[in-house]
Specification:
single chain; mainly alpha; elongated; about 325 residues
Length: about 325
C-alpha cells in the first residue's frame, strides 16, 4: 500500500498593517472628531431644533428663484393691489406696491442670512487675530491693543455702526463692514484669555526652545486650541449680526435696491402699516428675524456645551 507524499502547509504569516501617511492620519483624526462632536450635539434637543430651523430657512433662501420666481421683487409687475390683506392668492398679503409679501419674505432671507454670515465671519476674524497677537506678544503692543479694544467695548456698537454706515455708500458691503469692524472686541477678549491659558502650558515652552518662531507658535499651537472657542463664538455673533443688519435697514441705512427683512420693516413703517393696523406687513419679517436669531443662539449654546462640557448648558 503506497501513500502519497503531501506538501507541508505554509505557516500563516500575519498581515503587516500598512502605515498611513501623516496626512491620512490627520484626516482620520478629524473624521473621528467630527463624529464624536455630532454624537454629543445630538443629545441637545434645543440645538437640534435650532439646526433644523436653520437648514429649512437656508434651503428656502437658496431655492428662492424656484419657489417664488425671480420677478417677486418687481414693482412694475406687481400681481396684486397695494396693501391687500392675507388671502388664498396672497397668504401674507401684499405690500404698498402690490407685491406678494410671501415672495418678498423668501427673497429677504437671502440678504439677511448673507449679511449676517459675512459680517460675523469678518467680526470673528478680526477678533481672533487681535486676541491671539495680544495674548502672544507681551509689553506695549498688548497694552495698546487692549486699550483700543476696551474703547470699542464701552462705545455703543449700534451707534458706531450707524455712524460708519452713514458716511459710506448704501450697499450690502457697507452694512457688512459696519457690523464687522464694530463687533469684534468681545471675541478679541475671549480669544486673548484663551491664548494666555494655552501659552502657559509646557509644550509651548518646548516648541520655543526647539526654535519655533512667533508664527509657528501662534499658527500651529495656539490657533488650533482656540478654534473651538472661535467656532462657538461665531454662531453667537451671527444672530447679533442679523439683528444689527435688520436695525440698520429699518433705520434706512441699508441698500434700497435689495429686499431684506429689515428693509421690509422699514417699508412697512413708511407705508403707515403701524398706524393702519396692517399687521401682515409687520409680523412676518419680524418673526423671521426672531426665529433665525433664536435658532443661531440655540446652536451656539449647544456647540459651547459640546466643546466645553463644564459650562453646564441645559439640554
Amino acid at each position: 500500500m503506497t501513500t502519497e507524499a503531501t506538501e507541508p502547509e505554509a505557516p500563516d504569516v500575519p498581515e503587516v498593517p500598512v502605515a498611513k501617511s501623516p496626512r491620512a492620519l490627520a484626516w482620520t483624526r478629524r473624521r473621528h472628531s467630527v463624529a464624536r462632536f455630532w454624537r454629543e450635539y445630538r443629545t441637545h434637543r434645543a440645538g437640534l431644533f435650532g439646526l433644523a430651523a436653520l437648514v429649512v430657512i437656508a434651503l428656502i433662501a437658496v431655492f428662492a428663484p424656484l419657489l417664488v420666481g425671480s420677478d417677486a421683487q418687481s414693482v412694475t409687475d406687481a400681481p396684486g393691489k397695494p396693501m391687500e390683506s392675507p388671502s388664498g392668492e396672497f397668504p401674507l398679503g401684499t405690500d404698498q406696491f402690490g407685491r406678494d409679501l410671501l415672495g418678498l419674505l423668501v427673497w429677504g432671507a437671502r440678504i439677511s442670512l448673507t449679511v449676517g454670515l459675512l459680517a460675523a465671519v469678518l467680526s470673528v476674524a478680526i477678533g481672533t487675530v487681535v486676541g491671539i497677537t495680544a495674548g502672544h506678544f507681551k509689553g506695549w503692543y498688548s497694552t495698546v491693543i487692549m486699550r483700543v479694544t476696551d474703547w470699542f467695548l464701552v462705545m455703543p456698537t449700534l451707534v458706531l455702526a450707524i455712524a460708519l454706515a452713514s458716511v459710506m455708500s448704501k450697499s450690502i458691503w457697507t452694512i457688512i463692514l459696519a457690523i464687522g469692524v464694530t463687533t469684534w472686541p468681545t471675541t478679541a477678549r475671549l480669544v486673548r484669555a484663551q491664548t494666555l491659558a494655552v501659552e502657559s502650558r509646557p509644550y509651548i515652552e518646548r516648541a520655543q526652545a526647539l526654535g519655533g518662531g512667533h508664527g509657528h507658535v501662534m499658527g500651529r499651537h495656539v490657533l488650533p486650541n482656540v478654534m473651538p472657542l472661535v467656532l462657538a463664538q461665531t454662531t453667537l455673533v451671527i444672530s447679533n449680526a442679523i439683528l444689527t443688519e435688520a436695525t440698520l435697514a429699518f433705520l434706512g441705512l441699508g441698500d434700497p435696491t435689495v429686499v431684506s427683512w429689515g428693509g421690509l420693516l422699514q417699508d412697512a413703517r413708511e407705508a403707515g402699516a403701524v398706524s393702519a393696523g396692517d399687521w401682515w406687513y409687520l409680523a412676518p419679517p419680524g418673526l423671521a428675524i426672531a426665529v433665525v436669531a433664536l435658532a443661531f443662539t440655540l446652536c451656539g449654546r449647544a456647540v459651547e456645551s459640546v466643546l466645553n462640557p463644564r459650562l453646564g448648558v441645559s439640554r
